[in-house]
Each structure stands twice: as structure tokens, then as C-alpha cells.
Amino acid sequence: MENNKNELIKLLKDNQVVKYGKFTLSSGKESDYYVDMKRAITDPIILSKVAEIISKKIDKLKIDRIAGPALGAIPIVTAVSIESTIPMLMIRKSKKDYGTSELIEGDLQNGDRVIVLEDVTTTGNSLIKAVKAVISNGGIVDKAYVIVDRNEGAIANLKNEGVDLEPIVSVNDFI
């Protein structure tokens, strides 16, 4: 597993996923670097490696669904769903006002055990919103995975929600 992590770090570095400069993050915070996960999750080699790593991690868990917030997590959720053959859910940022008006797309049953995935976390706010959406719709979430954690509070914030967040890699693996 450690070898897979090192392969992923190399792929992320080779694809220049971490950019340096002045950036404003989704949390509103200013940062000297930006983790450009859209660049990573649109690369089939990186996506395949991530799916392999996460699928091995969840192999021993009893999971009914794999979920993630739109937009960034959806390619990851899709890849892991295909690799693990566990059905997926897509969580919208907000309910749409047409069609079925669902916040969660996919077949979530009451009591389903759900793993929530994210591409990158800073404070974990978007991941917390996704977790709360699953729980408020009858799902059970006690574990989440993120490809890259910026080490800025997401793990502690998710723990406060009763969810164990496990980063695949940390930004410290790059900087």
C-alpha cells in the first residue's frame, strides 16, 4: 500500500498538481500554494491509481454506497465505484428546482453504509455538507477519504461530526 501511495505522489508531482503563487481558497483563506486536483482527476492514470488505493482500503469494510460532492469528487467516486463494484451517489451543492429536485442522485436506502470521497480538503466544509446530506437522507457515514489533505483542520472538523477522515496523501508529502 505504501508503494501505491508513493506512486500516486510521483504522479501528482509529475502532473504539477501543486501550484505556487497567491491563491484564494474556497474557504476564503489566502494561500501561497494551490492543490489543482481538477488537473489530477481528469487524468485517467491518476484516477485509476486513486481508485485502486481507495478500493483496497474499503475492501474490508461493509459499504453499500460510495458518494461525493459535485463537481470535484464525482470522477473519483465513479472510478472507485467501477473498481470496487459498489454503487455510487452524487451529492449536489443544492437541490435543483426541476426534474426530481433531488439533492442526492443515486439509490440511497435507509440505513445504507456510505463512504464519502473528496478530491482535496482544507477545512473540510464541503465534505461535511456532503456527509450531512447523506445522513439527513437516511445514510450512515463514519468514514471519508480525501486524495490530498492540506492539513488545515479538515480531519479534526470531520471528527467533530463523528466521521473519520483518512487522507490518501498530505500536502506535506509535496512541500
**Which CATH class is shown?**
Alpha Beta
Number of helices: 6
Question: Can you count the beta strands?
Answer: 8
Largest beta-sheet characterization = 6 strands, mixed
Which whole number gives the mean pLDDT? Answer: 91
Strand percent estimate: 25-35%
Strand adjacency order, main sheet: 5-4-3-6-7-8
Q: Would you identify the regions where 5 or more consecutive residues have pLDDT less than 50?
A: none
Query: What is the helix fraction of residues, given as a range?
Result: 25-40%
Q: Kindly, what is the distance between the CA atoms of the first and last residues, rounded to a whole number of angstroms? A: 22 Å
**CATH-derived architecture:** 3-Layer(aba) Sandwich
Radius of gyration: 15 Å
Number of domains: 1
Structural class: alpha/beta
Looking at the structure, the CATH topology is: Rossmann fold
Q: Could you state the order of secondary-structure elements as H and E?
A: HEEHHEHEEEHEHE
The coarse overall form would be globular
What does this 3D model show about the protein?
With 175 residues, this protein is α/β, with parallel strands linked by helices. It has one domain: Rossmann fold (3-Layer(aba) Sandwich). Helix content is 36%, strand content 29%. It has 6 helices and 8 strands. The chain has helices at residues 2-14, 37-41, 44-58, 74-84, 125-136, 154-160; strands at residues 18-24, 30-35, 65-69, 88-91, 104-105, 113-121, 140-149, 164-170. The strands form 2 sheets. It has a 6-stranded mixed sheet with strand order 5-4-3-6-7-8, sandwiched between helices. Helix 4 links the parallel strand 3 and strand 4 (88-91). Helix 3 packs across helix 4. The chain is globular, with a radius of gyration of 15 Å. The chain starts with a helix and ends in a 5-residue tail after the last strand. The model has no long low-confidence stretch (mean pLDDT 91).
